[in-house]
Design a protein that fits this description.
Distance between the termini: 19 Å
Strand order of the largest sheet: 1-10-15-12-13-14-11
Low-confidence stretches: 5-9
Number of domains: 2
Structural class: alpha/beta
Order of helices and strands: EEEHEHHEHHEHEEEHHEHEEEEEH
Number of helices: 10
CATH architecture of the largest domain: 3-Layer(aba) Sandwich
CATH class of the largest domain: Alpha Beta
Oligomer: single chain
Shape: elongated
Length: 325
């Protein structure tokens, strides 16, 4: 397999993805909307989304997740923008995995941010045929000046004939599940805690493109994933599995700046070597799951020493993943 580079994939041609609020009128009603940013699709987000799904299953109609791209903070306060737990394409995939067949992505810019929250809700209600309910996090705020809240949705629901559902925050122990807590856990390398808060293992999604072929020269062809402002675990070597469609491909990965070889600009990369894999996968998506941290990243005296250590890393990853040889 040639060296590969993974980058975040687009989402323009994904089936079931709507781009304009008016497209809601093409879906069979009544509509049950779950609205939020949903970065990470963690347990709290899942509670909101599953409430809309349950409503559609019990009362008929269609569940639709309404989300935003880019993350609103990146537009309104870019200097405070968080590293995303999930790119938009990854978020859409995770939401589909919950059983949602339709998602509306609203382009978030300054013009949309200036929209009065009442106008936003009225536009949704006018497009839905009809609108049955809106599900949001209990304390979610939206619209110009963050003036939109559950009370506003409730008032408009009474006027326009839909129900509002404020889904309570999900707690684990005394802590409210949040994207902020999960980012901190991933950054600290506490992937078990991150998984507990996410309700799934922490993963990163990317699209395969050609890389610089250094791995092939070392005897370990690799795939590289640029950070793209995603929240990554600490630098180091991991036993991983890569999801390709319905297949799980075992491998070993390194996150870091490749200190032993030339790395212009010190770009942080994720390099993945897939075991016993020879297929052509350019342009395909891979979802990387970090199974076990093996060692920190380190600088070696040269390529021979690096190759020897990679062999040891691969053997250790194989052993952990239950592979012979």
């Amino acid at each position: 397999m040639p060296d590969l580079k993974i980058m975040r994939s687009g989402h323009d041609a994904i089936p079931g993805v709507l781009r304009k609020i008016g497209e809601l009128r093409n879906l069979p009603g009544p509509l049950h909307l779950a609205i939020g940013v949903f970065d990470g699709v963690h347990l709290g987000h899942q509670a909101v989304i599953c409430r809309a799904l349950d409503g559609a299953r019990q009362g008929g109609g269609t569940a639709v997740v309404v989300t935003f791209d880019p993350h609103p903070v990146r537009v309104l306060r870019p200097e405070h923008a968080p590293r995303l737990l999930t790119s938009t394409a990854h978020k859409l995939q995770l939401i589909r995995d919950l059983g949602v067949t339709h998602q509306l992505i609203i382009h978030f810019d300054h013009a949309f941010a200036a929209t009065p929250p009442e106008d936003f809700i009225r536009e949704l209600a006018a497009a839905a045929q009809p609108l049955q309910e809106i599900c949001v996090g209990f304390e979610w705020c939206f619209g110009k000046g963050r003036a939109g809240n559950l009370a506003l949705i409730e008032r408009l629901g009474g006027e326009l004939g839909f129900s509002e559902v404020g889904v309570p925050a999900v707690k684990i122990g005394d802590e409210i599940v949040s994207s902020t807590l999960i980012r901190a856990a991933v950054e600290d390398g506490d992937l078990a805690r991150a998984a507990k808060l996410l309700g799934r293992e922490f993963t990163i999604l990317g699209t395969v493109v050609e890389g610089d072929r250094l791995g092939r020269k070392l005897g370990f062809p690799t795939a590289n994933l640029s950070a793209h402002n995603e929240q990554y675990p600490p630098n180091g070597v991991y036993a991983v599995q890569a999801r390709r469609g319905d297949r799980m491909l075992p491998g070993v990965a390194n996150i870091g700046v490749r200190p032993t070889v030339k790395n212009a600009g010190g770009e942080r990369l994720l390099e993945v070597h897939l075991f016993d894999f020879q297929e052509e996968i350019y342009g395909e998506d891979l979802e990387i799951t970090f199974r076990k941290f093996l060692r920190p990243e380190q600088k070696f005296s040269g390529l021979d020493a690096l190759r020897e250590q990679i062999q040891k890393d691969a053997a250790q990853a194989r052993l952990f993943l239950g592979l012979a040889g």
